Amino acid sequence: MKQLKITLFLALAAFSLQAAADPDLVRKEIEKKYPELKAERVTKTGYGDLYEVFANGEIIYTDPKVTFLLLGTLVDAGTRANVSEARLQKLTAINFSDLPIAQAIKLVRGNGARKMAIFEDPNCGYCKKFEQDINALENITAYIFPYPILAQDSIDKSKAIWCSPDRLKAWQDLMLRARPPTASGTCDNPIEKNVALGQKLRVQGTPMTIFEDGERISGALPKDRIEAKLVAASKAANGAEAKR
Predict the structure, then answer these.
(1) Inter-axis angle of helices 152-162 and 191-200, to 10 degrees?
(2) 3-class SS at 82?
(3) Residues 6 or more apart from 234 whose CB is under 8 A from it?
(4) 23 vs 59: CA distance, rounded Å
């Protein structure tokens, strides 16, 4: 009888520990203590008692009882890999095929085999430098989403470019040759939809690039890094397609 009691106690203790470590319970505790945090996903990490909380587009770490919140970078001491960065890229990945490309300006160079999407503001200086590098790449299709977030003038230029007879030419005239668009900008256009889309995807600055494998990278990447990422993303996308 005594042995049975000990066995039951150990079983209950193990169940209690398991329950305490349930991600759903961690989520509920976060909602109770920090209602402003919208925890989209809670996952147990492989590092001690840390839980990964994906909320408001960021990764936060906590313990099973949510006695603390840690905002920072988690690095694997053995491999020195940036665990937080890798996880954030995965959690914020975008299904490329879900992008509404009809709302974008299409640029094709060469055979157009490698695809990318870019959110750009027409008054963004970094975007203009980035545009030069994009136009130096070969065999790409770039879907450029005018994303005017800097000023009203950005909105006006985006609409005028979209309403131009040749949108790509009007866009490149502005971004590469500093020639502002001359169209009225009163036609039916997707600019407001693009702003809403960018907000939904948490695009907080321009340029922001989305590759075929779903990875998103903010900022004006150097040309060699764009090329390397295009190669890797194309292989990943083709490999995923072959498995279907």
Answers:
(1) 120
(2) strand
(3) 113, 114, 115, 212
(4) 15
pTM, to two decimals: 0.75
| One-character DSSP codes across 107-141 | EEETT--EEEEEEE-TT-HHHHHHHHHHTT-SSEE
Domain ranges of the chain: 2-91, 96-243
Q: pLDDT digit of tens for each residue in the chain (244 aa)?
A: 444 333 333 333 343 444 445 899 999 999 999 999 888 899 999 999 999 999 888 899 999 999 999 998 999 999 999 999 888 878 878 899 999 999 999 999 999 999 999 999 999 999 999 999 999 999 999 999 999 999 999 999 999 999 999 999 999 999 999 999 999 999 999 999 999 999 999 899 999 999 999 999 999 999 999 999 999 998 887 765 555 5
Question: Quick check: 141 and 101 in contact, CB under 8 A?
Answer: no
Residue 180: CB atoms within 10 Å: 13
- State pLDDT tens for residues 171-187: 999 999 999 999 999 99
The counts of H helices and E strands in the chain are 8, 8
- The order of strands in the sheet holding 58-62 is 39-44, 51-55, 58-62
| 96-243 has the same fold as 2-91 | no
Per DSSP bridges, beta strands 114-120 and 140-146 are: parallel
Return the structure tokens found at 173.
Answer: 């005239």
- Three-state secondary structure call for residue 61: strand
Q: What are phi and psi of 192, to 5 degrees?
A: -65, -35
Is 2-91 assigned to CATH 3.40.50.970? no
- For the 96-243 domain, the top CATH level (class) is alpha beta
